[in-house]
Amino acid sequence: MPQFSSGHNNTALTASLLESWNEDGFLILRNFFEPTVVAQINRLVDHLWSSRTADSNKLIIDTYLNSPQCKRVPFRSVTKEVRESPYKLNDLYLEYDEVRHIVLHAELTRIISLLLQGTPLVINTLNFEFGSQQDDHVDTFYMPPKKSNCMLATWIALEPITADSGPIRYYPKSHKIPPYLFSNGKTNAIASELPSFNNYMQRELEERNIEAKTFTAESGDIFIWHAQLLHGGTPIMTPSKTRKSLVTHYFRKAEYRHLFWRLKKVHRNAYYYKRPHQS
Ligand SMILES: O=C(O)CCC(=O)C(=O)O
């Protein structure tokens, strides 16, 4: 299993990173962030919950994930009880420097640039405090990149992640399965056709002997996955168990040069996409 700790020799690390990435479609970076960096994000989330009702709050939250009550609403409108069930707080990167700096940390940016073969552009962030329990999917369902495969996601553990908290599930090497095209001729998902997608994936996984794995982690570990890697959230076995994480999706700056007024520099060769919050 490809797992790396920070501090390896750069040349050797670069070669093994790329080999693992191409072969497996994911990377695990252990011990990447110091506890103080992670604590800063957890403090920010706590602060956002306690100050959420301010009129100026533009954040959008998806509440009661994977249940019939699931709803996308303004964060300022929710009660504090909403925090006790799975939720997704969207796009903190649009507002907060500390989020931009962790998801575009210099060494992480170097690794992402290698994998994408270009300058990364953050296009969204998602903060979770519980497992998402999301069905297996590939990210091109929702945000296909302009150029095939020029997208990836990072998943940063903001606390120790245990097997009973609904860790992320992924299928090593599934990025090599030819992308499933919906009746629109694209990878963008059409809800009524998802059963056909699931059948297709099931057949392909069986033919390739691919079995699901889960990512349990220590605080500060990172899981990076390819745009076409099949993944989802496992069931939460202990409902009170949190699973704090920060997920980020990245495109390449190269494909978005024409929208130059939306491209904001964080540091050398690291950008984020400035846009309105989700509606
Ligand atoms: O964290 C999770 O459980 C799922 C996140 C995910 O699948 C995604 O953002 O694409």
What can be said about this structure in brief?
By secondary structure, the protein is α+β, with helices and mostly antiparallel strands. The protein contains 5 helices and 14 strands.
Helix content: 10-25%
Total domains, how many?
Answer: 1
Number of strands: 14
Ranges where pLDDT stays below 50 over 5 or more residues in a row are none
- Per DSSP, the total helix count is 5
Radius of gyration: 18 Å
Q: Which H/E pattern describes the elements?
A: EHEHEEEHHEEEHEEEEEE
Profile the largest sheet.
Answer: 11 strands, mixed
User: Which CATH architecture is right?
Assistant: Sandwich
User: What is the CATH level 1 assignment?
Assistant: Mainly Beta
Tell me the span between the first and last alpha carbons.
39 Å
CATH superfamily, by name, is q2cbj1_9rhob like domain
Bound molecules: 2-oxoglutaric acid
What number is the mean pLDDT?
A: 95
And the CATH topology? Jelly Rolls
Structural class determined from secondary elements: alpha+beta
| Percentage of β-strand residues | 15-25%
Q: How are the SSEs ordered, and which strands pair?
A:
Layout lengths: L2 E3 L4 H15 L1 E5 L4 H16 L9 E4 L7 E4 L13 E3 L6 H7 L2 H11 L3 E9 L23 E6 L10 E3 L23 H14 L5 E3 L6 E5 L4 E3 L11 E8 L10 E5 L2 E4 L6
Parallel strand pairs: 1-2, 6-14
Antiparallel strand pairs: 2-10, 3-4, 3-5, 5-6, 6-12, 7-10, 7-12, 8-9, 8-11, 13-14
Bound molecules: 2-oxoglutaric acid (AKG).
The site of 2-oxoglutaric acid has 12 residues, from strand 6, strand 11 and strand 12.
